[in-house]
Design a protein that fits this description.
By secondary structure, the protein is α/β, with parallel strands linked by helices. Helices cover about 30% and strands about 25% of the residues. It has 2 domains: about 290 residues, 3-Layer(aba) Sandwich (Aminopeptidase); about 130 residues, Alpha-Beta Plaits, CATH 3.30.70.
Length: about 425
């Protein structure tokens, strides 16, 4: 291991913990998108003191952006002494709501028993802090390096990333020649390299009916009953077919190594939003189902969609008065970076040096901001690597281990050393 880098990071452990605590104390809850501006200003001020050029960029006119909750992102850049490649560390600053069941204040950044607790500790403010410490340590040890280092804190990953990485990618911040390599410090275990993710198709299915008085349902046509037929067909036909599909992608956990469908929500009739605690007097003329279909690299998106449409079309032929509409909400194709690309090669070198073992290559069951970097920025040398255990994300008493952050920071710094000193070509 590069002893100079290891020592530089060891000297910054207290700073790493303090930085993680400070980041957790910004309650950047999404939705609605609280605290984005003060959090990004804090990151910018921190990195300015280290010699980075910083820019705050608002994702204007993106979902959720308004003057009360501006979608404020930060990008910081440190130029080396000579031209060379740019390595970019991208972390999202938004977190999900705290929820119930906590034994500590979710936004206090409690440090106890070698762990930092708080909402976003592992997903992914610990990873952001580790990447900052890794970059600062690398610069301190290698002041004459060639190329550039960028660090970003971006918003809205938990709701699709449209005001964050997607917006920035559209503006050219995640494309060559500005950026060559991207590392996303998502919490997928410190000895794993995440090469990509499964695909996702989100859609809304609406079954249609005819309104009538609830005491005379025979005069109307219940859209909810039609949706029941859809759900029954899914249970009998679609779920078993999806469960039989397997992949060569190394998806974790094992249960995600096949196609899946989640029924996200069902809405039908006069809802309690309008008549809380009161009965609905009408036959429902509309029922809407939101589906979350996760698919594999072996599957084609058109067939993924057609599997659902075929069932709906059959019901339309066979079921009296059945009618439907389907609306696409989001479509993301599966991604899998080759394990011998420059970034995974560099991170693998770091894992070998820090842990004395070969890395495990995995695929995420869900998407993250790599999707925008690939499809919009057309930059494919990108992986997720960072401290933390994904199973702890979004749960009460979320935490990140201090030793995990330190070791991950060492891996990241070694990765910088490989990518910016040209050693990736010789690996």
């Amino acid at each position: 291991m590069n002893e100079h880098i290891s020592r530089a990071i060891a000297e910054r452990i207290d700073d790493l913990v303090a930085l993680t605590v400070d980041l957790i104390r910004f309650p950047t809850v999404n939705p609605p998108g609280e605290g984005y501006t003060p959090c990004t200003e804090y990151i910018a001020n921190r990195l300015k003191k280290q010699g980075f050029q910083t820019t705050l960029i608002r994702g204007e006119d993106t979902p959720g952006d308004n003057d009360r909750y501006p979608r404020t992102n930060v990008i910081a850049r440190y130029e080396g002494r000579r031209p060379g490649p740019t390595v970019h560390f991208n972390s999202h600053i938004d977190v999900v709501e705290a929820g119930a069941g906590w034994t500590v204040d979710p936004f206090a950044g409690v440090v106890r028993d070698g762990k930092v607790y708080g909402r976003g500790a592992c997903d992914m403010k610990g990873g952001l802090a580790a990447s900052i410490i890794a970059a600062e340590a690398f610069i301190a040890v290698n002041p004459d390096f060639s190329g550039a280092i960028e660090i970003s804190g971006t918003v809205d990953e938990e709701s699709g990333g449209f005001g964050g990485v997607a917006y920035l990618a559209q503006k050219g911040f995640f494309s060559k020649p500005r950026v060559d390599h991207v590392i996303i410090p998502e919490p997928l275990n410190k000895d794993r390299i995440c090469l990509g993710h499964r695909g996702v198709w989100w859609a809304e299915i609406e079954t249609k009916g005819s309104i009538a008085h609830g005491s005379m349902p025979f005069l109307g046509d219940s859209a909810i009953r039609h949706m029941g037929a859809v759900l029954h067909a899914f249970e009998e036909e679609l779920f078993p077919a999806l469960d039989a599909k397997q992949t060569r992608m190394p998806v974790v956990p094992e249960g995600a190594r096949r196609s899946t469908l989640n029924l996200n929500s069902v809405h039908g009739g006069q809802t309690e939003d309008y008549f809380p605690g009161l009965p609905s007097p009408n036959v429902p003329d509309s029922c809407r189902l939101v589906i979350d279909r996760r698919f594999l690299i072996e599957e084609d998106i058109s067939e993924v969609r057609n599997e659902v449409v075929r069932i709906l079309e059959r019901l339309k032929r066979e079921r009296p008065k059945f009618d439907y509409a389907i609306r696409d909400l989001m479509e993301v194709l599966p991604l899998m970076t080759e394990s011998d690309a420059p970034v995974p090669t560099a991170i693998a070198r770091g894992i070998r040096e820090v842990f004395g073992k070969e890395p495990e290559y995995v695929i995420s069951p869900g998407t993250y901001d790599q999707k925008h970097i690939s499809r919009i920025g057309h930059l494919h040398d990108c992986v997720a690597y960072g401290p933390g255990i994904l199973d702890l994300a979004h749960r009460p008493d979320e935490w990140v281990g201090i030793d995990d952050m330190v070791e991950s920071a060492k891996v990241m710094a070694i990765g910088l050393d490989v990518l910016l000193k040209g050693a990736a070509k010789a690996a």
